[in-house]
Specification:
By secondary structure, this protein is mainly α. Helices cover 66% and strands 2% of the residues. It contains 14 helices and two strands. It has a two-stranded antiparallel ribbon. Strand 1 and strand 2 form a beta hairpin. Helix 3 runs antiparallel to helix 5 and helix 7 packs parallel to helix 9. The longest helix has 29 residues. The chain is globular and about 65 Å long. The structure holds 3-hydroxybutanoyl-coenzyme A. 3-hydroxybutanoyl-coenzyme A binds next to helix 3, helix 7 and helix 10.
């Protein structure tokens, strides 16, 4: 199954003249900005690319609960605990919308989960970094959710209807997540010198991993060209990364935090900041499974799946019984 999933057929963008008639009609709909719906005709590569991207996105939401869930019992106040609990629950919900969107393309949630656990489907690199102090929870909200939103706002206009509609709902919730992270950091930056130092430490550790979330540089991006031709992706990885840097610099200034990049400077000519690229060797190493927390994250997910087997079986048995009971009544 996975061989089919990864073989998206997206390594070469074909000219319109090379396409069969039904694909020409499909491309004309894409050009007009029409949404493609589950029962519409679509090229196999389009379907597989969406399964790959939406599935990876869903897994990211679910695995993304782990670094924050780690802090629920250690939140410093009841209010912060309630906020964090709500946020982590939202992420689970986002995973479910996205699994449902992917299921409309002919793959089941169980299949996607199995592929994840077998290391055959990815999740976002960012969740392989640890959350070491309470300020990290602020940095995750501000920088990680901030980077996620930068991408997801554009994805609200993606060409596949169910994905685009899931994104609209998710973006509303993510913007609350980002604000709660920023609010947490405002409090810490206005607090004691120790609290400010914790915030700076979190910024130092999360800055480059957040920049990596947008994917490799455009020259190394395998899927961008085809995904943009299909309007699955609206922007390139580098475009979004640049927007994120430009948006974040004044926010860091307001907090009084230093972005850990000596080369970060406003470029008048480009009307954008110049900045140092992340260490791309580190990125490829993390997505190959060798980041600081990859093994822990996967072990936690695999164990949760095993531990939940009895519950899933119970639900399935109940669902099977229900129509029989109704019939009997
Ligand atoms: N982490 C892990 N893998 C990544 C990655 C990242 N940050 N960025 C790229 N990759 C992988 C790609 O999946 C691809 O590998 P594959 O062929 O085995 O699937 C390879 O690196 C090459 O990258 P490309 O640029 O060619 O890949 P894409 O065109 O798919 O672009 C993307 C990458 C921009 C991340 C795109 O997939 C995308 O927009 N995805 C939807 C958004 C998403 O997944 N967000 C997760 C963020 S976390 C989140 O939302 C949770 C919230 O709670 C914060």
């Amino acid at each position: 199954m996975y061989a089919q999933v990864i073989d998206t057929g997206s390594d070469r963008v074909r000219a319109i003249g090379e396409m069969p008639e039904e694909e020409k009609v499909f491309m004309a709909r894409i050009e007009k900005g029409e949404k493609i719906e589950p029962k519409d005709w679509m090229p196999e590569g389009y379907r597989k690319t969406l399964i790959r991207q939406i599935g990876q996105h869903a897994h990211s939401e679910v695995v993304g609960q782990l670094p924050e869930g780690n802090w629920i019992t250690r939140a410093p106040t009841l209010e912060r605990k309630a906020i964090l609990l709500a946020k982590v629950q939202d992420e689970a919900g986002h995973g479910l919308y996205l699994y449902s969107a992917a299921e409309t393309l002919g793959i089941s949630r169980d299949e996607m989960t199995e592929l994840l656990h077998a290391g055959k489907m990815k999740y976002s690199s960012i969740f392989n970094y640890p959350t070491l102090n309470w300020a990290d929870i602020g940095a995750v909200g501000w920088l990680v959710d901030g980077a996620a939103i930068m991408n997801q706002v554009a994805l609200q206009r993606t060409s596949y209807g169910p994905y685009s509609r899931a994104m609209i709902r998710i973006c509303k919730e993510e913007s609350f997540h980002q604000r709660q992270g920023y609010d947490l950091l405002i409090k810490m930056c206005q607090g004691s010198p120790e609290q400010k130092a914790m915030a700076q430490d979190a910024m130092n550790r999360f800055w480059y991993p957040a920049l990596m979330m947008f994917g490799p540089s455009d020259k190394d991006s395998v899927h961008s060209e085809q995904s943009m031709a299909w309007k699955i992706k609206i922007n390139t990885n580098d475009e979004l990364r640049q927007k994120f840097v430009d948006q974040t610099v004044p926010q860091a200034k307001y907090l009084g935090l230093t972005i850990p990049d000596e080369n970060l400077v406003w470029n008048e000519e480009r009307g954008a900041h110049d900045f140092t690229q992340p260490d791309w060797n580190e990125f490829f190493d993390v997505i190959a499974g060798n980041g600081p927390c990859n093994k822990d994250r996967m072990a936690a997910r695999v164990n949760a799946w095993k531990d939940g087997a009895w519950f899933r079986e119970g639900l399935a048995a109940y669902a099977k019984k229900l129509p029989l009971r109704k019939q009997a009544v």
